[in-house]
Design brief:
alpha+beta; Structural Genomics Hypothetical 15.5 Kd Protein In mrcA-pckA Intergenic Region, Chain A; 4-stranded antiparallel beta sheet; 17% helix
């Protein structure tokens, strides 16, 4: 989805960490959509002001200063894929979010965020005042639950607090060693990374080969997660006792091997907790990082399912923005610039919050989960 450039005014009051710092430094280090040269010119020309007055690149900010940046805003493109409604009742609307679309307006995405895009295709959506009830990473596809009412939103929040929200994800991963993957899920004597335990697959489950393939065990990854870089949103996982950082939170995910071909595998992930980037970190800890997830060890691979994109700084703003998208390995090999994923191979497949009145909702399985020979099928109604 390409949004034509449009006038935009960014307004913000001084944040605590900005007090005493130069405005030029703040824009170049924390707002990287544009170059240092752009910000120098914008400040000189008066497009960036402090308290309604012109400033210079070295102006020092004080508490409660009002910063205004007037610009012609160019949004990053998102994939031109529909936001399909999967389930709807009087309280909830559950949609299937494409990868590349953020759930909140942020950074280089405003019109190209979930609810504005839904408003384009859903009659009356503008007047519904839909409320987001949880997060889903921009690069992740799958189910997002929107509340139609305040009571519905409150019920979902209460369900989260009571640990009554159940979710299932699919991930396509690239292992360092395919034999190690098979052994982790089948060989009881094979050593596991710290913080990982095997859960025997019950007899009743093992009869359902459509779900579990030939694996003997599920794996549960447990440990601590905390943010190490708030600007980039990068998190860290550790299996040791809680670090000194009080923001560290416990995390746990149960992972089942569904299919494997060469060094690639598809796994089913059932998070017991809901920490930021939890599944991505836990799969990296198992040495099977998610494909395209370069933040956590995944290899970039251009494909129609999850294309790569060039940064807008490297693109002629007068050219068609479609030129930023790289869709196959040939284009990827020819591109000499740094590339960024439009999506990772992680998909929210199922969602349930029984105490909130939301039955088990199952979304469509992504095409990339079927790219394997002898691929197992999925039992969809796992919470029923």
């Amino acid at each position: 989805m390409l949004v034509p450039p449009y006038p935009h005014e960014f307004r913000a009051h001084t944040k605590g960490r900005w007090v005493g710092r130069e405005i030029g430094e703040i824009f170049t280090k924390e707002f990287k959509l544009y170059s240092k040269e752009y910000y120098e010119n914008a400040i000189e020309s008066g497009k960036i002001t402090v308290n309604g007055e012109k400033c210079d690149f070295h102006t020092t900010l004080d508490e409660n200063d009002l910063i205004v940046h007037e610009s012609t805003f160019t949004e990053m493109p998102v994939l031109d894929r529909p936001v399909d409604v999967v389930y709807e009742d009087e309280k909830f609307l559950v949609v299937n979010k494409p990868c590349s679309v953020p759930v909140h307006p942020c950074g280089a995405y405003k019109a190209n965020s979930l609810i504005p895009l839904l408003n384009l295709t859903r009659p009356g959506a503008v007047d519904e005042d839909l409320k987001l009830t949880h997060r889903l990473d921009r690069l992740t596809s799958g189910l997002v639950v929107l509340a139609k009412t305040r009571s519905g939103a409150a019920d979902i929040i209460q369900a989260f607090e009571c640990s009554d929200v159940k979710k299932v994800y699919l991930a396509r991963c690239l292992a360092d060693d395919s034999k190690c993957v098979q052994k982790m899920f089948n060989d009881e004597a094979f050593p596991l990374p710290p913080g990982v335990t095997r859960i025997p697959i019950e007899d009743s489950e093992s009869k359902d080969k459509d779900v579990l393939g030939s694996s003997k065990f599920k794996l549960e990854v447990s440990g601590w997660i905390w943010c190490v870089d708030h600007r980039s949103g990068i998190n860290k996982f550790s299996v040791d006792a809680q670090p000194d950082d009080v923001r560290a939170k416990s995390s746990s995910t149960v992972i089942t091997l569904l299919s494997r071909k060469g060094n690639e595998c598809v796994v089913r992930c059932e998070p017991k907790t809901g920490r930021t980037h939890q599944i991505r970190l836990h799969l990296q800890h198992l040495h099977i990082p998610i494909k395209n997830d370069k933040c956590y060890g995944g290899k970039l691979e251009a494909s129609e399912h999850c294309p790569l994109v060039r940064h807008l700084e490297s693109v002629d703003k007068t050219a068609d923005l479609i030129n930023v998208v790289i869709r196959d390995e040939h284009e990827q090999a020819e591109c000499k610039e740094e590339l960024h994923p439009q999506g990772i191979f992680l998909h929210a497949l199922e969602y349930a919050a029984p105490t909130a009145g939301l039955k088990n909702v199952v979304g469509p399985k992504p095409e990339w989960a079927s790219l394997f020979e002898h691929n197992t099928l999925l039992r969809l109604n796992s919470f029923s």
